[in-house]
Amino acid sequence: MGASLARAAQWTSASDSGKGKLELSPMNEKLLNDIIQFVEGFSSKYPEEGRFVFKDPLIWETSIIPSSFSTGYNASDSAVTSNDKDASGNPLLELSGGVLRVKSFAQLTNILRMAKEKRLNEARMCLEANRDPLVKILGPGFATVDSEDSTLIRMVEKSKSDDSAEGAVRLRLLLIVNEFDMKLLNSCFREISKKVRLSPDAVNAEVELLQSFAGEAPNTLLKDIHFTTQLVFSNKCRALPWRQVHGDICYVVIKPHDGDSFCVTASTSGCYVNGGFEEETQTVNFEKKGEVYKDLVSLLSDKSRQFADNIAKKEFSMQEDNLKETEKETAVINDLSSEQEKEDIQTEKQQKALKDAGKKGKAGKDQKKSMQPSLKWRNLEDSRKTEKAQKETKKKVQVTSVPAYRRPSYFGKKTPADDDDDMSESSDESDEEEEIQDRRQDAGSDLPSEYWQIQKLVKYLKGGNQTATIIALCSMRDFNLTQETCQLAIRDVGGLEVLINLLDTDENKCKIGSLKILKEISRNVQIRRAIADLGGLQTMVRILQSPNKDLKCLAAETIANVAKFRRARRTVRQHGGIRKLVALLDVPVNSADIGKDIEVARSGALALWSCSKSTKNKHSIKKAGAIPMLAKLLKSSHEEVQMLIPVVGTLQECASEKSYRLAIRTEGMIENLVANLRSDDSELQMHCAAAIFKCAEDSVTRDLVRQYEGLDPLVALLPQSDNKELLAAATGAIWKCAISSENVARFQELKCIEQLVALLNDQPEEVLVNVVGALGECAQEPANRIVIRKSGGIPSLVHLLTGTNQALLVNVTKAVGACATEPENMSIIDKLDGVRLLWSLLKNQNPEVQASAAWAVCPCIENARDAGEMVRSFVGGLELIVSLLKSSDLEVLASVCAAIANIAKDEENLAVITDHGVVPMLAKLASTTNDKLRRHLAEAIARCCTWGNNRVSFGREGAVAPLVGYLKSEDKQVHRSTAQALYQLSRDPDNCITMHENGVVKMLLNMVGSSDSALQEAAAGCIGNIRRLALANEKAKYA
Q1: What is residue 191's predicted lDDT score, i.e. its pLDDT?
Q2: Which of 259, 323, 588, 668 sees the fewest Cβ atoms within 10 Å?
Q3: Where is the region Disordered (predicted)?
């Protein structure tokens, strides 16, 4: 622990007491949690080492009070000593005057257990007071050193002569601590490596760029920015060597328009404001005065409002001198690159065949010294630039341009982004092409020789005969076409147009060579968009009807790569590609070349898989008759994994549609999907589980999965926690299957719930959503709620209530609500402040989260010890829940009414919600026709009638007559809650008259004979009140 605390932990500078503190940073929090986990399990894992007595006690000021100590300790009002003592008779733990002294790991474990939720703070105070714990545990000879540490070697040498048991324990303890120390350091280094690290080149370029936008003019970004020194070391750093050891690169003085100047330290970990720069002495105060930012622009955007506004508005200009200098640099770089190209052309030798074939194009070669885009490509580029210029004119934004190689992304330039996963067919596509900026290789960039060699091969494709073309295609395939440089080299010189034109020739060899290249390079998002722009998809769709099976395979696989974005998928559909791709799935029974036919079918399934991401394409695929063919391929004896993966992938993509789920079930494919869950291929398992996940929305499918013994392999996939995609699919399938109680019984037998609880930590959100959803369904059974508690799942579930993922919040609220129906579970939820977290989710903007949180609140109120006081302790909580009655979502209204029915059981709370206007708001909902809302609304009205004149107010607000109509519902639960509400309302004479006028007596008389005792009693009570009013009227009439 000493090395990790000294090297990885982040400490503040020395305070008044002369000791630094651990910073409140995510890195330190992770470090502390790892140490706590290590110490908590130390005694049970290493019992002998846990009893080892430290050389000197660890001493720190604690927040634990003497009353927290119980068995094994002698505690008084102000002091505590442990019963366990060392060889000298001194206690291993002493607490006196708020200062704790501990001399063994066993006692440290007990301290952390007693600290409970404060253990993080306790560990922090202990480590701050003992920055090198090994010195106290083993002695000064084991102190952490910066140079090479030979302590362990000396210890091993000493153990050879020391045969005592204590020496062996000490050695084992040192090895355990050293091993843990290495794990901590590696963990911290992994976290650090994930973060963006600044380099001297990046900082210098950023400062230089900001200098070009600095000046006294109001439309500049800054007044001034400069380095503190002009001294530059060989590694391009300006910080002194002894500061470079700490990661410092340079120090920059910045003068914004709207504030005083300040000094910034640029280090490898980011930029932060330091203690300042003294101009007279030329010294920097290195102390950090604020948080760390990823770059200077982020820091300035936070520190200067005017800087941030100018960046957002793009209302800034570049200094003319710098602009001219930049233009000169660009010209020099272009000249250098042109000369380099000449040298490469002269020095590189081509194959003899290429030389002979290339003589025809030599004249064209001499005319142009540098490669230019083809005419068709230039036309596309010009049209795009024209559209973009028109849009910029409309916005009236004037920004002085900066050369492309000098313009960073944070000044408004969009970075290339792939919107391949956009599945919407109806969304606006007007700015689709603007989402991905065109990336072309700069003339001055350091390009590999392959770039120029490929460009020369493209020239042979343009000007050579058939033989030269085939040779050029073969030579081009020898390059690594998966590299972006090679892909863009083909595009930049107009090679894509040539390759697509070759598809219209009559020579199959040229077509095959071209398609093989297009198939490889179309994995690049820019290339696939360029292919669509140049009309390549239409040509490939036509090739799908070719008698040549190799051509059909290659065309389908290329379509599969290109159809990863919305416009390409639409193009395939509009040109009849879906029908032709479905035709490829038909494998003849007695084919002479069955292997090639299967390959054609596999390629067709791959293309359909890509196309099926669009809703309209799914309908076209079904209309073309693909489902029986996919079922045939899934059930065929040709069960090659590479064949099954695209077939199952297409099925699981289409299973989001209800019609497909029905077809998958009726075609008998569930049995095959279950069988393939036992495959050795994890990708196939993942797609099968994902298909079951979507199909299991239907109850019949859930029963089929159980009948075909599919629950067992799903549970068997849970230990594969390294494969997150497979884990997400498996847990999703388990979640949907758990909706059926028969499946839950099988999951209990397989110990599935314990495994699901173990997955509640350290998993991505897509896995957590499914895991929590499955636990929520399993928790509907009382026995499973106990299993979740005993497995330690409730604290993890409550912790997830603090998340932001909407789907996860819906599921976790449902799971917590189900667990809260057990009193013991409810006490744990209450201690962890779970009810308050649930209540806070009522403020969420998502109606599903609001409804789920309100449903979860109901069992919490029912099972809490002092529910009334708990609810009143939430500031503004009652007002919040009453305000939700204004929602337009029926599920929110039903859940809130159910919560109000529970809240109103407490008289004080009922008085408060009455003051907040709950009566007129409930009365306003009485006209609803939704039975679920009717049931809970009637319950809420019945509860609210017990306070003051609320029953009179309900009658005045017109709620009585609609309630009578509820008795005509088919739902028996609506009858019961309505009868109870009418019984309460009938205690007011005016309400009795309204009920009688609406014919309530006849309907209630039929319900008096119900088998539901609560309904019987309420109906009879309501009739009794009406009858007593009638008798009173008669008596008054004849008196």
Answers
A1: 66
A2: 588
A3: 322-445
β-strand pairing of 224-227 with 276-278:
unpaired
Q: Is 18 exposed, middle or buried (0-12, 13-18, 19+ CB in 10 A)?
A: exposed
Residue ranges of domains in the chain: 2-159, 200-371, 668-750
Pairing label, strands 93-96, 99-102: antiparallel
Does 358 score more than 60 pLDDT?
Answer: no
Q: φ, ψ for residue 712 (rounded to 5)?
A: -60, -50
97: left (phi > 0), else alpha (psi -120 to 50), else beta?
A: left
Q: Half-sphere exposure of 832 toward its Cβ, with a 13 Å CA cutoff?
A: 23
Strand partners of residue 22: 11
The Cβ of residue 212 has, within 10 Å, a number of other Cβ atoms equal to 21
Q: Which CATH homologous superfamily contains domain 200-371?
A: Hypothetical protein (hspc210) (3.30.2280.10)
Q: How far is CA 662 from the centre of its chain?
A: 31
pLDDT tens digits along 173-229: 888 888 888 887 777 766 665 555 788 888 988 898 888 888 888 778 889 999 998
Tokens of 742: 């028969």
- List Cα–Cα distances, 745 to 404, 709, 753, in angstroms: 63, 13, 11
Which of the four pLDDT bands, split at 50, 70 and 90, describes residue 55?
confident
Specify the 3-state DSSP secondary structure of 1014.
helix
3-state SS, residue 94: strand
DSSP state of 75: E
Q: Round to whole Å and give the CA distance between 985 and 1026.
A: 11
Q: Tens of pLDDT along 959-1009?
A: 999 999 999 998 989 999 999 999 999 998 899 989 988 888 888 888 888
Question: Which pLDDT score is estimated for 714?
Answer: 94
- If 0-12 CB within 10 Å is exposed, 13-18 middle and 19+ buried, where does residue 816 land? buried
Residue 159 · residue 169 · CB < 8 Å: no
- Choose the weakest-confidence range: 119-133, 302-316, 786-800: 302-316
Residue with tokens 């001034």: 224
The mean of the pLDDT values for the chain is 81
Q: Which of 189, 180, 159 is nearest to 171 (CA)?
A: 159
How close are the terminal C-alpha atoms of the chain, in Å? 96
Looking only at the bridges linking them, the beta strands covering 79-82 and 93-96 are antiparallel
pLDDT at 1037: 67
Listed in sequence order, the residues at least 6 apart from 960 whose beta carbon sits closer than 8 Å to its beta carbon are 954, 982, 985, 991, 994, 995, 998
Q: Is the pLDDT of residue 5 over 80?
A: no
Element (H or E) spanning 97, and its range?
A: none
Which regions of 177-282 does DSSP assign to beta strands (E)? 224-227, 248-255, 262-267, 270-273, 276-278
Give the side-chain half-sphere CA count within 13 A for 518.
36
Give pLDDT tens digits for 675-726: 999 988 999 999 999 999 999 999 999 999 999 999 999 999 999 888 899 9
CA distances from 170 to 59, 141, 309, 812 (A): 21, 13, 62, 46
Cβ neighbours of residue 616 under 8 Å, at least 6 residues apart? Answer: 425, 570, 573
Please list, in sequence order, all residues whose beta carbon lies within 8 angstroms of the beta carbon of residue 578, skipping any fewer than 6 positions away.
572, 608, 611, 617, 620, 621, 624
Fold of 668-750: Leucine-rich Repeat Variant (1.25.10)
- CA–CA gap between residue 189 and residue 187 (Å, rounded): 5
For the CA atoms of 810, 812, 818, 824, what is the dihedral angle to 10 degrees? -150
Alpha carbon distances (Å) from 934 to 914, 991, 998, 1013: 20, 19, 18, 20
The total of other beta-carbon atoms located within 10 Å of residue 188's CB is 20
Q: In what order do the strands lie in the sheet with 93-96?
A: 58-61, 99-102, 93-96, 79-82, 73-75
Token representation of residue 59: 């001493």
Q: How far apart are CA 801 and CA 808, in angstroms?
A: 9
Instruction: Specify the pLDDT at position 149.
Output: 52
